[in-house]
Amino acid sequence: MRSLIKVPETTPYAYNLYEDMKGKYLLPYLVETYQYPCFIQLAEQVEKQYDVMPEVFKHIYSYDEFGNFYSIREPEEAKRSMEEFIRAKWGNQ
Predict the structure, then answer these.
(1) What's the number of domains the chain is made of?
(2) In the Cβ-directed half-sphere of 82, how many Cα atoms lie within 13 Å?
(3) Is the full-model pTM beyond 0.85?
(4) Measured by CB atoms within 10 angstroms of the end CB, which terminus of the chain is less buried, N or C?
């Protein structure tokens, strides 16, 4: 949890971390199966941090309950929109 809380400070757009943890086979599975408070709190923190990220970094891919990867958005479109966001925010530094 401590490491997760630091992510926005060091890597504010770490969509891949959140998308991985939100996959049905990982945190949702642990919360549903074991219902340990630590898993619930971790899942809530992941959602909180995910929610504040710009939309361009959300809903790119996920995993099903068996850990199988699937794209939500076309990879090329996701990459293009992220590059546009970064260019608009910081220019061509």
Answers:
(1) 1
(2) 17
(3) yes
(4) C
